Amino acid sequence: MPRYELALILKAMQRPETAAALRRTVETLMERGAVVRDLENLGERLLPYKMTKHNQRHSRGTYFLVDFYAAPSILDGLLDHLHRDVDVVRPAVLKKDEQGPKSSCCANVAKLAS
Amino acid sequence: MLCLRGLRRIKAAAFLQRNSAHRSLSSAEALQDEPLLKAEGPSKEPQRGCVLCSVTVDFKNIQLLSQFISPHTGRIYGRHITGLCGQKQREVSKAIKKAHSLGFMPVTHKHPQFMKDPRICGIKHVD
């Protein structure tokens, strides 16, 4: 199964509510047959610009990163579900690159120099 | 007629001889040229890579990406200013636009936290 990354921005809430929202999101993922690999908290910070979502203007948010394996067919439904969740400000699913060292022109030049 | 045939034979033989001679000469030349071709001139400098040669560009690493944008307007600098190679310039540009749309990096300005970072780009600001 291909590997995806969910860059999630949640509303700035108290700790138990944030935990509940995260739990809800991960359970949704697992219900749809995804295998959650890693969950990172990038902290609560001021958003780079004010975002309007669900008739609310957000200036602060909590950033999370969820690494998971899933079938490509579930992504549409998942994004739809996340957009409808009131606590989520901005969801984004990205594909994660599996390849390690890429052959770039600069890398080749560096090798020649060394 | 006979002399013509004879002439043709002689010509053919000469041609064959010339060919073999040519072949032997070319192989000898090739043997001589190999070390000459491999040796580079003493004035040839080793190629320098760009600043991000061995650095993976990620949209989450906004501190790195902020080094390639204008502090006043947040515009992405061109290749003639950043000095990056084609591939890395494209990667940085794509990562900055991704960070903008996903809500990781400000669009119209540089994050004040990163204003004091070292300047990689060859542009002088009127401070």
Verbal overview:
The complex is a heterodimer of chains A (114) and B (127). Chain A has a four-stranded antiparallel beta sheet with strand order 2-3-1-4, covered by helices on one side. Chain A has helices at residues 15-31, 75-84, 105-113; strands at 3-11, 35-53, 56-69, 88-95. Chain A is α+β, with helices and mostly antiparallel strands and 114 residues long. With 127 residues, chain B is an all-alpha fold. Chain B has a domain at 62-114: Ribosomal protein S18 (30s Ribosomal Protein S18). The model of chain B has no long low-confidence stretch (mean pLDDT 80). Chains A and B meet through β2, β3, β4 and α3 of A and α4 of B.
Could you give the order of strands across the largest sheet of chain A?
A: 2-3-1-4
CATH class of chain A: Alpha Beta
Q: What proportion of the residues of chain B form beta strands (DSSP E)? A: under 5%
Overall strand count of chain A:
4
Quaternary: heterodimer
Which structural class fits the helix and strand makeup of chain A? alpha+beta
At the first level of CATH, what is the class of the domain at 62-114 in chain B?
Few Secondary Structures
| Beta-strand content bin of chain A | 35-45%
Order of helices and strands of chain B: HHHH
Contiguous helical run count of chain A: 3
Number of domains of chain A: 1
Structural class of chain B: mainly alpha
Count of helical segments of chain B? 4
Span of the ends, CA to CA of chain B: 96 Å
Distance between the termini of chain A: 38 Å
Family (chain A): Belongs to the bacterial ribosomal protein bS6 family.
GO molecular function, one term (chain A): structural constituent of ribosome
Pfam family, one (chain A): Ribosomal_S6
Protein name (chain A): Small ribosomal subunit protein bS6m
